[in-house]
Amino acid sequence: MIKNFTGLLVVFTLLSSVAKSQTPDPKREFRGVWVATVQNIDWPSKRGLNSDKQKKELTGIFDEHQKSGMNAIMFQIRPSADALYAKGTEEWSMFLSGKQGVAPAPLYDPLEFAIQEAHQRGMELHAWFNPYRATNNLVDADISARHITRTKPEWFFTYATKKYFNPGIPEVRKYIVSIIMNVVRNYDIDGVHFDDYFYPYPDKPALPDSLTFAAYGSNSFKSIEDWRRNNVDMLIKELNDSIHAEKKYVKFGISPFGIWRNKKEDPLGSETNGLSGYAGLYADARKWLSEGWIDYINPQVYFPFKYPAAAYEKLVDWWSNNAFGKHVYIGQGVYRATEQREGWKEKNQLPEQVRYLRKNPRVQGSVYFSSKSLTNNLAGFQDSLRRDLYRSKALVPTMIWLDAIPPQSPLNLQVKRSKGKNELAWNQPLPVRDNEAAYGYVVYRFDKGENIDINNPEKIRNISFDSSKLSFQDQETKKRSKYIYVVTTLDRLKNESLPSNSIQVKSK
After folding, report:
1. Is the Cβ–Cβ distance between 465 and 439 less than 8 Å?
2. pLDDT value of position 342
3. Which one, out of 6, 20, 163, 453, has a CA that is 20 to 30 A from the CA of 480?
4. How far apart, in whole angstroms, are the C-alpha atoms of residue 279 and residue 260?
């Protein structure tokens, strides 16, 4: 009797485990990954690679993330007042050619290339800027004679081992806005993205900006700390206004340090005890949300569950409770997955973090640092995404404050049968009242007898960000199987139409 009960218990446990792992994926979820170029963290693998090898590496990276279900790339294009793009005024980054100011050879535009490759795979491309960091070291040989730190030395201060723009100088803010807006105007990006580097992380010496405060802030601010925060605030507000005035669909998001303020410092803060972005980096991220200056917040919650100083679950809940209606994407530190520290020794730490945030309706997804940590499959996390958490494709969440009008459905869906594949074709939809053109299409496939439910992401066969491509070849068909197809339209902000006409076909 006991033996049989034990066997039943084992079976029940296995079934429960399978049921847990087969929980349906969400249809809408932001699944981003940081592709870092500073110090060649993720790409290119080394400096001085020829352009063909750089392109091959980047497409390989994007292919891997597509297989893992990602739908957004945070691509670092300005690591230190330099450029990984051609249509700008700053010097080419040394992380491409090996020498600052030297273009990749043969000449190509890495950002243009990255945008095209991401969009072909149904992934957004967010241009990742570092606004204030100007150099990565103090080695003169690494800095071009034409670099902004040489042509405008009065705009910078040296702190620890790097040079930084001095945010208290009005001309500095104007310059940074102009650099970013040049990219917004000239490239088909989906978002502008900042990480946590505003004022530098605190070190032993004091920040050398007291003279700047005396010149620009002492009459209006009682403390230099409040003045510094205001300097950052003005940049964020001006960028938000400028970006959306130029292209309303370009999203503006920031990935701050995981702690805004500790509760012991501010009753509105989190139940944590660590460095705060507010005091350490002069980044008032909660204010940016409350004022509506950003479209998403992407806090770097690189901590495990129940971590005494900063518990993952407490920070996720705090940010979700302080989103003010904007999106929350949790930054997750895959690079920490193999650390032999409290919490990270548990190999299910990251999968459980994804499951936890999915239970919170005010959290819309994740962004992972960094690309190489995912593609190297640290702690088997890439396997977890592919086999369990991200089995199905997902659309990014909609932003109704930017656009709430869905497009019209595609017209006249038809299917042609060929051996081993079904070839779909359709016509463009009619225009909608905001005159926004179709941006892409989603193809769904159902088995005969199934309800047509486009909220089921398991039925998505393809997501396309190419409005001119009015066809799709379904090459994963079974002989003599009966399928039903529908297609929907996407607009630029990924609002989705009702389905097209449905069409049934028996595969050859």
Report:
1. yes
2. 87
3. 453
4. 9
- Encoded amino acid at 303, one letter: F
The CATH architecture one would assign to domain 27-389 is Alpha-Beta Barrel (3.20)
Cβ count within 10 A of residue 361: 7
User: By three-state DSSP, how is residue 446 classified?
Assistant: strand
Contact 347, 14 (CB under 8 A): no
The model's pTM: 0.94
Alpha-carbon distance of 486 to 450, in angstroms, equals 13
Query: What string of H, E and C letters represents the secondary structure of 189-238?
Result: CCEEEECCCCCCCCCCCCCCCHHHHHHHCCCCCCCHHHHHHHHHHHHHHH
- Residues 37 and 71: their CA atoms lie apart, in Å, by 19
pLDDT in tens, 327-378: 999 999 999 999 999 899 999 999 999 999 999 999 999 999 999 999 999 9
Helix orientation angle between 51-67 and 110-120, rounded to the nearest 10 degrees: 30
In this predicted model, what pLDDT tens digit does every residue of 382-404 receive, in sequence order? 999 999 999 999 999 999 999 99
Query: What is the C-alpha separation between 21 and 389, in angstroms, rounded?
Result: 8
Smallest Cα–Cα separation from 498: which of 444, 449, 437? 444
Contact residues for 264 (Cβ-Cβ < 8 A; gap 6+) = 273
As a whole number of angstroms, the distance between CA 432 and CA 429 comes to 9
Spans in the chain with pLDDT lower than 50: 1-21
Tokens representing residue 136 in the block = 């990565």
214 phi and psi angles, rounded to 5 deg: -60, -35
Report CA 380 to chain centroid distance, whole Å: 21
Largest CA distance in the chain: 85
Contact (Cβ atoms closer than 8 angstroms) between residue 399 and residue 251: yes
Task: Pick the closest to residue 78 from 176, 171, 150, 153 (CA basis).
Answer: 176
List residues bridging with 157 in a β-sheet: 164
Please say whether the beta carbons of 196 and 283 come within 8 A: yes
pLDDT score for 91: 98
- Where, residue-wise, is CATH 2.60.40.10 in the chain? 411-506
Cβ atoms of 81 and 148 within 8 Å: the answer is yes
Buried (b) or exposed (e) across 362-388, using 16+ Cβ within 10 A? bbbbbbbbbbbbbbebbbebbebbeeb
**How far is Cα 342 from Cα 324, in angstroms, rounded to an integer?**
33
CB distance 34 to 371 below 8 Å? yes
What span, in angstroms and rounded, lies between the C-alpha atoms of 21 and 88? 47
Strands 421-427 and 471-474: antiparallel
Contact between 12 and 444 (Cβ < 8 Å): no
CATH of 411-506, one of 3.90.550.10, 2.120.10.30, 3.40.50.1260, 2.60.40.10: 2.60.40.10
- Range(s) of the chain covered by CATH 3.20.20.80: 27-389
**From start to end of 236-322, where are the E strands?**
251-254, 296-297
Q: Specify the residue for token string 């130029």.
A: 246
